[in-house]
């Protein structure tokens, strides 16, 4: 009998590894730019064509590679960053796994040009599907240029999973922004389809933020700085009045590495408690500097997840630092942050609130002392509340039992009537409608009913492309970051069909000229921010049915004004008729039950 277990060829093993490391063009951008940072570059240029599907090129002026290193860098688990297991807990470089270039070269055509300053000639290598096709000596400037062409050309199924160009470009912009924020001392530029999107000179962090997100951010930034023996926190937070309904402008960096942490985000939001409206998110760019021995970044190949050995302490220090910043900038009611609460350096001098353009030169972290922890007694309630919170059941409402299924638009109870004579309707708690039926009653959630009615209306507008627009007396500028601007391009046709009027000026900025009729008094900026936020959060990408998704989002927002609203008798009758003339009177577009029927027996049981 033949043996069943065998070694996979390197080409297949590399493709398997690439599935984790290289998920989309933005993954390539992240890995290549981080390599440039590790190479000590002072200037990094990113050039993309067709959202990275045709080509991605990163050019830097770093230290370059020798001819032998140029070959070795495409081998799996070949790295200059670590040499023993203990190095995993002393990492200060962006890369260390030695998987990125091998993974990229297995699913793309790669051209590498590199030269060290001390070498007379540089190296040119061309790789295709992990196979070295060309290796020669060439004249080249000091540094490295890597060109990645035709990503996933040898795996058509993976290429088919890529999204539209605007979606993929939005992900590339996200990665570019994160790396540019983390390294304001480096010059960056981004060119897409031969047009320059960003040209960022060497600057301080505050200026880098303004250059990336717009001049309006100059007014909202408040410097945040706190130093302890365990962790140092530096950066900027946004003023509460500038909080947006869209996420995406919240950044954590640990030892200059971008991370995602809902736990630390909760610490920030708890510091803003009662300062920002529910459902809005303040801007922040926060850098945490900590001894690598206290963290583990070897959690996931993307390296955006991280583990702390004392996460609760990080939470408490972060929350207190932001509260202090908001207080010192007179952004919250007076709080008692006396001198004992402020962390001090070992010499006793208060932590500096000066320039934060460079975060190097911090004192070597020492073991955490119990003394400073006592300063944060009372903050544990917020931490523990976050740790034990559970996701509420979205269907846990009045209609938890089985719902009445209406068989058609012409329902039996309604078909008996001509006009409104055969049924009566009353409103209770400004929230529910009770409709009398022969032998019972029907209970309707009015907000969910409006969601269904408005969803049908907006869906019809999308099909017929005839949404009615309510023109604004004074057009509004749409204030969004470049990544969201790409998303607007993706959904522009749909939101125009719904009734939004958007025009673009000479500076490529959008102006809101009109909003869909019937959405209430919500302004266009808030409405579009809400749509962008929900489109981004409901799925990481737009799917084929994004038109339906946008209609549902807009219907949900437009129906909010009926959450607890007193209706006139004519409005109640019209609502009932429109609901049962809708495409699905039983369920809202979110899949929630709209109504429940009670017969005589049900009512008797409720009473008795």
Could you characterize the architecture of this molecule?
The protein is an alpha+beta fold. The chain is 33% helix and 21% strand. It contains 18 helices and 22 strands. Strand 17 (432-437) and strand 18 (440-445) form a beta hairpin. The longest helix has 19 residues, at 446-464. It is globular.
Class per helix and strand makeup: alpha+beta
- Structural shape: globular
Mean pLDDT: 78
Distance between the termini: 75 Å
- Name the helicity range: 25-40%
Number of helices: 18
Major sheet, described briefly? 8 strands, mixed
Strand fraction equals 15-25%
The total count of strands amounts to 22
| Strand order, sheet with most strands | 5-4-3-6-2-1-7-8
Tell me the Rg in angstroms.
29 Å
Model regions low in confidence, pLDDT < 50 over at least 5 residues: 334-378, 390-421, 539-544
Organism: Aquirufa novilacunae
Keywords: DNA damage, DNA repair, Endonuclease, Hydrolase, Nuclease
Pfam families: DNA_mis_repair, HATPase_c_3, MutL_C
Family: Belongs to the DNA mismatch repair MutL/HexB family.
Question: Main traits of this protein?
Answer:
DNA damage; 22 strands; alpha+beta; nuclease; five-stranded mixed β-sheet; 18 helices; endonuclease activity; globular; 608 residues
Can you summarize this structure?
This protein is α+β, with helices and mostly antiparallel strands and 608 residues long. Helix content is 33%, strand content 21%.
Explain the layout of strands and helices.
Elements: H1 10-21, H2 25-38, E1 43-49, E2 55-60, H3 67-72, H4 100-106, E3 109-115, E4 122-128, E5 131-138, E6 143-149, H5 156-160, H6 165-182, E7 187-192, E8 195-200, H7 205-213, E9 221-227, E10 231-238, E11 250-254, E12 257-259, H8 262-271, E13 284-290, E14 295-296, E15 307-308, H9 311-328, H10 370-373, H11 380-388, H12 412-415, E16 425-428, E17 432-437, E18 440-445, H13 446-464, E19 469-477, H14 482-498, E20 501-504, E21 510-516, H15 524-538, H16 546-559, H17 569-579, E22 595-599, H18 600-607
Parallel strand pairs: 1-7, 11-13
Antiparallel strand pairs: 1-2, 2-6, 3-4, 3-6, 4-5, 7-8, 9-10, 10-13, 11-12, 14-15, 16-17, 17-18, 18-22, 19-21, 20-21
